[in-house]
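Supplementary notes for students who missed Thursday's class. We covered one full example, reproduced here. Read the sequence, then the structure, then the short commentary at the end.
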Amino acid sequence: MWWLHGGLPRSFIASATDSWIWRQNYVATFLERDLPRIGIRIPAAQLRRFWTMLAHYHGQTWNGSELARALGVSHPTVRKYLDALTDALVVRQLQPWYANVGKRVVRSPKVYVRDSGLLHTLLGLQTRDELLNHPKVGASWEGFVIEQAAILLGATPIYFWGTQGGAEIDLYFEQGGRRIGIEVKRADAPRVTPSIRNAINDLHLDRVYIVAPGPDRYPIAENVEVISPLHLAECLAQRTP
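Structure (token representation):
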């Protein structure tokens, strides 16, 4: 239920029906009342359209031109919308890591709706079955795990890394002198993919955690472990090699 309902306290502790109603009301109140109170004066209906569209791009690299065309506004305008929701702490712009590895790397941020419950509200997903059968289920899981890791890491800068050739790692950061990568998978038996191997080699990663839904923790290669989100706190607290 944590993943489905998100981490906002009143949504998290409520019953399924009450959580859904509360989140719908929260989105409306946030857009119509809370944002104007902090000086963000964008029409609520337009910003809701943008936020909903952004939910469908959740976990993808930012493409302002595409969103601007869909909304019928300019590129600077959608950038203004994105920055407004980022400043209001409901959207995360995960910046790319630039590594001089002789490859063309992705240079646009990835965008995420920070709270998974709000993401599911914007996507119209009320039940677990609806979520599990939705095309964005993998991206939702990815964003959920990344947000938990970001909270645990606090002030530690976090990035993603990707190349134009398709190699990537969902989360990259440096901690206690180590270079660590996190890859998020919605799979029962995750494996070390060529993309992960490329990230290990190109970024000289000391450790990779593959976060999967199951409860277990086990190694699958040298310095590569499969863990559940419940193991994140334990793993990210280890500051020595």
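Commentary. The chain has eleven helices and eight strands. Residues 59 and 139 are 5 Å apart (CA to CA). If anything here is unclear, bring it to office hours.
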